[in-house]
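Moderator note: this is an archived Q&A kept for reference. The question asked for a predicted structure of one protein chain; the sequence and the answer are reproduced below.
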Amino acid sequence: MKLADRIENLGTETAFAVSLAANDWASQGNKIYPFHLGDLNFATPSNVVEAMNKAIRDGKTGYCPAAGIPQLREALAKDVSERRNLNYNIENIIVQPGGKPVITKFIQSLMNTGDEVLYPNPGYPIYESQIEYFGGIAKPYRYFPSDTGFSIDIEQIKSLITPKTKAIVYNDLQNPNGAESTAAEREALAEIAIKNNLYVLSDEAYFEMRFSGKSKSIAQLPGMQERTVILYTFSKKFAMTGWRLGAAIAPKEVAATISKLNTNDESCTTHFVQYGGVEAITGDQSFLPPMLNTLKERRDAALRILREIPGVSAHQPEAGFYLFPEVSELMNQKGFADVSELAEAALHETGVSFCTRLHFGRPQANEELKYIRLAFSGIDKNEIEEGLGKMKAWLSA
């Protein structure tokens, strides 16, 4: 029996592959310091949990509308509108079983076979996977180091556009490199989209996971709301990664198509989980400042130690929970030919488990600098200091 040919185009979320290697090493009695997966080791707020439990007790355990329950769609429309100074209503909001399905349904709704979609590379690997799985041509655009961390190569994006280009995937507050666009960069991307009549998927998973400043959405720029689909997720802000709850914030025609895909794919997002989402948005959010403060302390601890390791440089992101240190000089000093060799050796020598640039899309031509990615969302500060302290001692020897 032969599987469908398109399966060969389907990638995976490679951080989970690193998890398997870490778990295997741990099963042999070794201690692991998990920097590989962008999960959160914070409990979901109790008021959100109770709202879900109440919904179960009240019998909200059957089917519900494919687009989501009206209470959650209305709450999302109000919240997203206020935080982005835009005007959305219930028809623009389609609830999803997580943020990831928004990527898939954006591609399915707007891309035909043979269309080109531009996406960030390094970037979340599911972008590349879904474009190619549905028969599109995935065209990566790059970042380069800058005074603010990393900047998008706008000139490369311009050079990549052809008559077949249909859309751009844009992840401000980026995973893996933590890049945040300047106003000028965001405006340049908007100008490109409007000039070439392109749709934009704006992945805003970390929009409110900030340590300083205020996030902006590309949808806020003139002419962009009508061509932008925002990926919204409850996973990060509300520590609800395993609940699988998110939403597509989209122009009405696209939203209606995504709702139809919901009907075909999963019928509806879990009914009672959506009541937890309503409480998350409209209820007490006093948990958020302490959680962000804890994440900031973790970031600062990790950065301090990384910057003490000879041959390592790392910028300070102001949002999200990822560090993307450059390790080219370190690799030359220690004789590592490939960044994956460094990761494997670090796991076995120190227990520190992390992803590398290679886990975030196929490297582009002429890439010379080498990077690793560390997530500080699922590991406490004392474990960060202990684990990275061991790695520093090993690499400094």
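Archived answer notes: Residues 170 and 202 are 5 Å apart (CA to CA).
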